[in-house]
Amino acid sequence: MRLLAGTICVVTATFLITAAASAQTPTTFPLTVTEGDYVAHNFKFHSGEELPELRLHYRTLGKPERDAQGHIKNAILILHGTGGSGAQFLSPQFAGELYGPGQLLDITRYYIILPDGIGHGKSSRPSDGLHAHFPQYDYDDMVAAQHLLVTEGLGIQHLRLILGTSMGCMHSFVWGETYPGFMDALMPMACLPVQIAGRNRLWRKMLMDAIRSDPAWNAGDYKDEPKEGLRTAQDLLTIAGSAPLVMQKALPTGAAADKYEEGLAQAAAKLDANDLLYQVNASRNYDPSPQLEKITAPVMWINSADDFINPPELGIAEKESPRLKNGTFVLLPISEQTHGHGTHTWAIVWQSYLKQLLEKSAH
């Protein structure tokens, strides 16, 4: 695997982002984002399939700092969830709370890496042209590609922190087992380190079945998107990612809820059926539970009590967390600040735990 000059495009953009320095005095600061593509040649998937060129898009913030031996020492990798991209971590509720001067992930101190996973964002995905003939990637493939981007593409041999949300949370556990010692700390948010089963697996299968049962899908070689299947898929995604308290407050009347539901058709129209199928199906064989003891880095694992996908009543986190050699599990109580599964993107809710982790893992 190597970088070729003809396959790398880097674009830098600067914009202002609002940071809630306090409830009364919000501030703004410039956020310079550099975007690029790393191309892994002849990338082999665990399925046995291969792509001559696997494109991995990424964004970076801040600048790398090197130690006396020339090694980058301040890199932080942040991993997104299913259907998302690295761009989601530029939102005010995340970036505005973390990246500013004096904040926990101050970009004048840290080199932040925001990759788009395989099949997501601007990275290689089925909708690029292969459609249903795109390799059947899984989470192990996605993490292997991220490792290539970090090491071969960006020249980083050690990470200060890996922070992952939802699917990125699950990727964090895979990282910790596959590359122990590569990171100083892990912060997985909104997931469980066990195989996808129970209701979690059912709603994912329902989503995929809805697309596949739409006659327009045509085994993935559709001319027009299977709209009915995608509408059902969007409905399921909405329920899975929602929180009752927040939605009741935002949609306090029947008319408000009905109007919101009508708007889901616009969201469904932006989806690609094959991309979504692959994204959801990538979790099919995820199960880090047999090897949790391999994780040596300090872990701050955070879930929210109003998470539909990872409900606390299962008791899984309490059972598995003691197996982490240096781990802490935190269950955030339901409040007007939590947002169900999406609480992971609202940094104001959990940043105090990030502070603890950074202090605990400092050298």
Count up the domains. 2
Gap from first CA to last CA: 32 Å
Strand content: 15-25%
Helices and strands, in order, run as EEEEHEHEHEHHHHHEHEH
CATH homologous superfamily grouping of the largest domain: Alpha/Beta hydrolase fold, catalytic domain
CATH fold-type name of the largest domain = Rossmann fold
* CATH C-level label of the largest domain: Alpha Beta
Number of helices, counting only DSSP H or I runs of 4 residues or more: 10
Textual characterization of the structure:
The chain has 363 residues and is α/β, with parallel strands linked by helices. The chain folds into 2 domains: 5-195 and 289-360, Alpha/Beta hydrolase fold, catalytic domain (Rossmann fold), CATH 3.40.50.1820; 198-281, Rna Polymerase Sigma Factor, Chain: A, CATH 1.10.1740.110. The chain contains 10 helices and 9 strands. It has helices spanning 92-98, 139-153, 167-178, 198-212, 227-241, 244-250, 254-268, 273-281, 316-320, 347-360; strands at 11-19, 27-44, 50-61, 75-79, 111-115, 161-165, 186-189, 299-304, 327-332. Helix 2 packs across helix 3 (167-178) and helix 5 (227-241) crosses helix 7 (254-268). The two termini are 32 Å apart.
